[in-house]
Amino acid sequence: MYEILTTLVTLVAPVLTFSAEEVWQYMPKDSDMAESVQLAQWPAAHPEYLDAALEAKWEQILTLRGEITKALETARRNKVIGHSLDATVQVYAGPSEFALLDSIQQDLATILIVSKASIHEKTQNAPVDAYRSPELDLAVAVAPATGEKCERCWIYCDTVGTVSEHEQLCERCASVVKKL
Predict the structure, then answer these.
(1) Residue 173: left if φ>0, alpha if ψ -120 to 50, beta else—which one?
(2) What are φ and ψ of residue 128, in 5° steps?
(3) Which parts of the sequence belong to the Zinc finger FPG/IleRS-type domain (predicted)?
(4) Distance from C-alpha of 29 to C-alpha of 72, rounded to nearest angstrom
(5) DSSP conformation letters of 16-78
(6) d(CA 114, CA 81)
(7) What does the pLDDT profile of the chain (180 residues) look like in tens digits?
(8) Is 165 exposed, middle or buried (0-12, 13-18, 19+ CB in 10 A)?
(9) CA 135 to CA 133: how far, in whole Å?
(10) Contacts of 42 (CB under 8 A, 6+ apart)
(11) Cα distance between residue 67 and residue 58, in whole Å
(12) Domain locations along the chain
């Protein structure tokens, strides 16, 4: 935990100068630590924390996300949606892209910053008006999201209003607010 704190305070120091310095002054220090966070060495990545396979996977995910974002921008330009959270995205992918997207299916909507996302195999099954990536075996259909908009997370879903104490919130946000 101390290593995390030291790294985090050092990383935020250029932006949150006074706050980082205040935390630094209260931290227990080793004899080799700088007196001020502003004089501390930039943290170096520990080789044991590096994971080349994970990095490669996320590079591919971000490449796919970039192509899906192009479809969202086209839908925004055509006034189908206003904000990305106003969208439901259906992704039609080739075998390798599908396998990658399937591995993150549970978090796909969050990664894409949309209300709902689903994946389908075979780009041939995509609607005619779907965005087709010139670079990847990928087609994306964007439609307005259904359901009500949660006032806390802004996601459109069918669970908004199902919790009587918090009628403007989705179930997930209502459960979080109840715990506060």
Answers:
(1) alpha
(2) -60, -35
(3) 147-176
(4) 49
(5) SHHHHHHHHHHS---TTS-SSGGGSPPPPPPGGG--HHHHHHHHHHHHHHHHHHHHHHHHHHT
(6) 11
(7) 999 999 999 999 999 999 999 999 999 988 888 999 999 999 998 899 899 999 999 999 999 999 999 999 999 999 999 999 999 999 999 999 999 999 999 999 999 999 999 999 988 889 999 999 999 999 999 999 999 999 999 999 999 999 999 999 999 999 999 999
(8) exposed
(9) 5
(10) 10
(11) 14
(12) 2-49, 52-145, 147-180
Residues in contact with 142: Cβ distance below 8 Å, sequence separation at least 6, in sequence order:
71, 72, 74, 75, 80, 81, 87, 88, 89, 131
Task: Quote the Cα angle for 33-34-35, to 5°.
Answer: 120
What length is written for the chain?
A: 180
Q: How far apart are CA 116 and CA 104, in angstroms?
A: 13
Q: Which amino acid is at 129?
A: D
Which amino acid type is present at position 33? Answer: M
Q: Are 153 and 172 in contact (CB under 8 A)?
A: yes
